[in-house]
Every structure is written in structure tokens, then in C-alpha cells.
Amino acid sequence: MTISHILFVLLLCALTGSYAWGMRGSIIGGERGAMLPGAALALVLLYSGGSAPVATAFPMAAAIGAAGMFFGGSQTYGETITLAHNADAKARRRGLIGLAVKGAGWFGVFGGILGFGLGAMAGRYSLLETILFVLLIPVARQLGVLIFNAPFKPKKSVFPKVYFSISRRENWGGMVFVLLYIIVFTACKREWFAMLLAFSGMISGAIGFCFGDLLYRFVDAHLSKLWFSGWKAMECTFGAIGSVGIGLCWCVFYDSLGSRYAYEITAHSGAWSPFSTKLYTLLGFIWLVLLGLFIARYWFPHPGSKKKDRLSTILYDAEDIIIYPIFCLYPLFLAYVGDLFFAQIFAFFGMFYLLPDKIVFGGKSRYAKMPFATILHIVLIVLSAIILVAQLLLNFSPGVYPVWLLYALVYLLVLYVVVFDPIRLRALTKEHGSIIKAILSLESEPTWLMYAGVCVICLLILGKPYFSL
Q1: Domain range for residue 438?
Q2: Among residues 181, 174, 97, 106, which one has the least CA distance to residue 143?
Q3: Global pTM?
């Protein structure tokens, strides 16, 4: 790659990571929210080499990237940031170390998962090795939690020996073990590119989280909270630096290591696919059934409601367990074995569904209280149904740029509707006397939306020629 091309890719990585990470904190959150920056960043990296056969595998890359970033979304870091802002030097140091560990695990796992995906698409792993790799991930995660994040008995003031919070349960040990597992597995196969991506993610993730926290403190100390959000500045900085670190590794080593994957994928006329078309279709439909069962639980009363029953309590308590196979492990396996039918549905419908999943079904309290909520809910549900039917029955397979539009523009437009709910704005205008004062009453939200809007405009303009393969 030329220097100019590398700089262009890094610019796209920075804008993508910064915007998508800020969006995660604004509209989705949790593990599923982290899927957006993972999928978008994977698309940017996949297209950097300029290989058309590799580019045709973009749905698999989106699914792999989303699953790779999913792992870190379960980490708690609010109290770790509180420690990092503590006046006591020892507590502050513990908080910064915790942010470095959690940031390193988050982006390190993403880099390793994506690197393994390249080898899988190139056919470098056998079917047994691929199955084994995916099945042992949750085992490694659980071992890490048991070793590093136990015992945890807050009522008895019993906490793990290495603890980066105040009262919350942590699982960063699971991330560390998954990361070590990926590195060992890929090292045994001499997949150096995957290892380098994991190591670069570790470094950039650690730096990104710590630097983002420093910016958080600077913003809170020197800028008005009515205009700037220190938390949002931290999120966007973390996403940008973490993404640029992996992007730099990808670009620097692509010609010597990554281009070999492109050659092997080209030889397969696309991603490695050991199964028949009928079996791929069946596996894809199984994922849809699992997703349907996951959605069906929302029909039961929430455990916090007056109508709760034992079954609804069990279903909601099991959410932290069932989201891993539905949104991460099973999609990861299908993408690794080249299930294009599933990947096309996941990359478009699946990523769009994350919006109604949070806003309509599992929504934050502010979504439910929106005066405009009912209309927004209906629109999101209807659009989800239309997209799914079009992909299943009309063979609608959007290209990479429409997918890119979904990840950037559509998410932003939905956020604009949530924040600038017209009924809500009308009430605020009446309360404050003018539309300007009404918008200013939203404090730092408009500033973030302006920044996000600029990022999206740049991503759409730069992405059009970039994704034209």
C-alpha cells in the first residue's frame, strides 16, 4: 500500500470508530451496541486491499466484525472511570490500569476474531478446527471470569484480588482469557496476521481508553457541561484510537501477510464454503428461528412489572446467556464457514433489527416516555418486517454501500428522531419561549449530534468511491 492510501484508510478508521462508538453510547448500548462499530470497521479494513473477490465477502466480514466487538460490550467500566477520577492517587492509578486492561481486551479480541476470520474465509482452517475454535471461546471466557473476577460477594465486602470497580461485578478476566486463547490458537497455526491484529488491538485499545479518560477529565474541568459531554468525548476518542491502531497494523502488514489471504480467497472464488447451498440456507433459517424465540420473550411481562410470573422471570434472567449464541457465537461460526445466505441477512436485517430491539422491545426508559414513541415503534417494526421479507422472499441482497448507509446514515437519522422528537420539541419551545432555547435546553446532546452529523457526511462522501469495487 502507498502512504497516501494508508492515510486514507486510517482516516476512515478514525471516523468510523469515533462515530460508531459514540452512537453505541447514544442509542443501543451493551454488547449489541458494540456490534455497530465492529461491523463498520470490518468493512473498512476488508476493502483496504482493493481485491474484488475479497470484497464480495463483505457480509461475512460484517458479521465477524460485529461478533468480535460484541465480547467487550458486557464489561462494566463506569465505576472504573470513577476510580480514575478519584482524588486519591492509588485509586486513580487503579482506575487507569483497569481502563487499560478493559480497552486492551475489547479491541484485542476484536482484532484476533477478525484475523481468524480472514484465515477461515481463505480456507486455512479445517471444519473441525473452526468448530473447536468457536466452541472453546465461551469456555475460555468462563475460566477467565472464575480465575480473575471471583469471589464476588459485595454484601460481605468480598471482592476479587484484582478489582477495578467499586461495587459492580466485573468480567474483564473473561476477555483476557479469550484473548490469550485466540493468540495461542492462531500461533499454533502460524497465523501471524491474526496475532498481530490481536496485539495491535490490545495496544490501541489500552491507549484509547486511557487517553479518552484524560480527555473526559479535561472537558469536564475546562469546558461547560451544557455544551460538551466529557463522557461522549471519551467514547468517541476510545473508538477512534482503538480503530486506528488496528487499521495501522492491517495496512502495514497487508502486503507481506494480508495479501496472501486475498490470493487464497480469490482461488476459492470467494470465501471458503465447505457446505452445500441447502445446508447453508437451513443454518441461516435456524438463526432466524433463534432470533424469533429471543424476540418472543418480550411478549411476557417484564420481571419488574406487576404482572410478572415465574416463566417471564426465567426468560429475562437468562438473557445474558442466550444473547451470546444468538448474536455472537452462532453468527460467528456461520460467517467463518462462509454462509452467505445468513451473512447477507445478518449484515442488513440483523444490524437494522438492533434498533427496534433496543428502542421498541428492550428500550431505555426515555424511549418509552417519548411522545413520538408509538409512531417510531411502528415505523421500526414495519421496516424490519419489510427488510426481512425482501431478503427472504425477493432475494434482496444489498451491496456494500447500502449496508454502509444503514450503519451510518440510518442509525443517525433514528437518533435525530429520538432526540428531536417533534412533539417533545413543541412542548419545550412552549416552555422556553423559542426553538433555539428549546434546543439549548437539551444541553450537550446537540453538540454531539452536530459532530456525529459531520462524521456521517464525511463517511458517506469518502465511502462512495472506497466501496465501489
Answers
A1: 3-466
A2: 174
A3: 0.92
